[in-house]
Every structure is written in structure tokens, then in C-alpha cells.
């Protein structure tokens, strides 16, 4: 899981919900009872990930040999039991990374239930809780389904994401390349990022109203097992955000990271008050010893329950909308509140760092401010309808600088990239800065009928910082 930026917790009294609520308002024709997934098998998967890290410099980070070895091992397990696997490669600042997508044959291709976890660790350690636990848990769910003999109503897909620790790069890449029709076919995405923390809590994602039916299924499962739970708004902190920004129903579970367990939480869940849920979060000690087996066992069974449940839910003929209405914003995640979701470019500028204010919310794109020779950009692809009679790019920007004089040392260019042609709509610089946000708009009608990339490109010279802070972007048409 990415480093915590903004997390809001709310303690909730666990209450039972009806069976119809479990299935999102309709009665699923479940092919078989929910499985008791094997903790022995999951522990063996984790040991294999530990062995891979140990043999490859102590980590499984993006761009390092341990990551590719982890992916190859998971792929081989899935291939052996009949999954159709696809490896998607993409570039990062740390080197090439990979997503692994596994489809189980059969099920209605118009209704896809997808379960995912990030496979990469940070470079500091082997990443066994973060996120070997999520990766091993969904691997075991996938293998158990393959061995169950069940036939699902819906199409089942599992995913292991690369470069989550660099800003959800893998899941974002997957969704950015997925055709709109295929996005529309995904009825639910379940995300599992850290499910065996050594000082565990039981946190259920509560940051997507579209996915409340699955959230309620998860909390009802915990309630039925006598396991207290809390809601958590994880915002743009894990891979579900790459799906949420397209209007897809999402939920997930999190057993806690670097934040401190309170006395009330220790009374409810056991463990140690005043200590982190995972004291080894993003550290070298996140090894096979950094696991609470009770929490892991409980959570793998919950994961199996949800996969089995939604494999056979009748989603009907309605899927969540992913295309904005006429006049709506064609940009996804336009205010950056889901982090880097849907935006390509340099890793890092999209941030909730309080050193420069956002115009609205907590997140913005802070380009520059380095005071050294640097080049950063954020960009997003958008299609201008051929029927448009008006098309406009809008954004709000504030600037501040340590430079003096009338020479433009540092610049931010607002650009449209169409094929091999780049058009600069406006250039901001260290000259004439304003620390008050101002809105700017540019016509995009010249590109109607084209798929183009809207790009904000910053270049800073070797000394004295200039900060270009971007927020609340839009592409609208009529």
C-alpha cells in the first residue's frame, strides 16, 4: 500500500444486514457454499514470495529482479490450473514493470467480477504483509475456484498489479488502455492490500457509494463471524481508485499499516494499543515473520466468500455509467482527489503535501518547486466528440517563485499532443507569478473527432525554485 496521505476512520457498531443486502438487492444463485480457504496454502505462497525476495537482493520492488520473479511464479501457478493469463508491461522511473491478468474461462463476458492486489514491494524490504498477503490470498482464491468444479454466472478475472507503490501505476495503466466497452463490462472490483498485519484491525473500504452493496456484504460477513470492523476512507491510496474513478463499484479490506492502534481498537480487536498496526510497514522487517496468522486466516475466508458470492450474483443488464453526459467533464479524476489515478506522467507531482494548498479538496498537481534542473509533467488522454460544437480545456493555477527579474528561467507549458504534433496553448513562467489561484480556458474545437493528450509540462533550471500548482481541470464539450 502507498504511504498514508489522508485517512479518515469512523468506528461503526456492527449490525447484521439481510441476505438480499449481501447480494446487492437480489438473490444470487450461489453454485456452492463459500470456501474455507487454506491458511496452510496461503502461508506457503508467502514463503515462496519471501524466498524470491531473499534470492533477489531482499525485495520484490518494481524494476528489480525480485518483482519479475514473483510475477513469473504466480503466472505459472495460474497457467497450471487453466487460467488464461496476460502480462502487460509498462515503463516506470524504476524500469519496466508488469501487470498480470488472469481470466477464468466461462461466465457471462458482459458481467465481469474482478479481484485484485498489488504484487510489488518497496525497495526497502520483501513486502510480505504489504502486499504479499493480498497477492497470496487472491492467488489461493483463484486456485480454489479452479479446483472447485463450480460454474459461475459472471466472468471471473483476477489481477496482480505492478508499481502500486509508485502511485498505482499498474492499475492506472490497465484502466487507461482498457476500451470503454470493456470498462462498462466490469460490475465489481474487489481490492485487497495488506490483510495479515501483525497488530491487526479490520477496516472495510467506504469511499465509493456505487460499491456499497459489496461493502455491506463484507461487513455482514464479519458480523456473522463475530469479528468487529470499522469503515475506512482510503481515498486514492490503493488500486481500487483506478476503477472507482471510472464509476465502477469497488470495495476492499485493509488490516492496518503505519498508523497507531488506539486503546478502543485494542479493546475491540486485541493487540497492542499505542503501536502501529504494522510496525514493519515499508521496512526491511516486513518478512514472513511479520504476519498475524489469525487475521490472515479470517480474511482469506472473507475473500473466498465474496468471490463465490459475486461469481453468481445476477447483475441484470445495467452497468455503471462510465461516459459523462453531454456537457460533463471528459477528464477522469479532474481534481486529483484520487491521487494519480487516470493521470500519466512523472511520478510524484500529484500530491496532498500541505506545502502548497489545493484550490479545492486536499490533492493537486504540484509541478516544480525543486530548485534544481528538473522536468515534470502530468497528462491525460481524451477524445473530443466529432459532433462537438464547442470544446474547452479549463484549469486553475497558482504560482510562486524564488527567482527575480524578467528572465523566464522556469516554465510550465499547457499543451495538446495529437500524434507527433505538440501544440502549446499557453506558457507560464517565474515572471509574473501569482500565489492566488486563477482560472484559464482554451478552445479544443480544432481537435474535434480526435483522441488527444492534454499535457502540463514543467521545466525548471538549476537554481531557485518556481512552483506551478494545478487543480480542478476540465475538458467540456457541447
Automatic annotation (TrEMBL):
Signal peptide: 1-31
Top-level division of the source organism's lineage: Bacteria
SUPFAM superfamilies: Zn-dependent exopeptidases
UniProt keyword annotation of ATP-binding present: no
Ranges where the Peptidase M28 domain occurs: 99-306
Pfam families (alphabetical): Peptidase_M28 (PF04389)
Keywords, alphabetical: Hydrolase, Metal-binding, Protease, Signal, Zinc
InterPro entries given in the database record: M28_fam, M28_SGAP-like, Peptidase_M28
Similarity annotation: Belongs to the peptidase M28 family. M28A subfamily.
Name under which the protein is recorded: M28 family peptidase
Taxonomic lineage of the native organism: Bacteria, Bacillati, Actinomycetota, Actinomycetes, Propionibacteriales
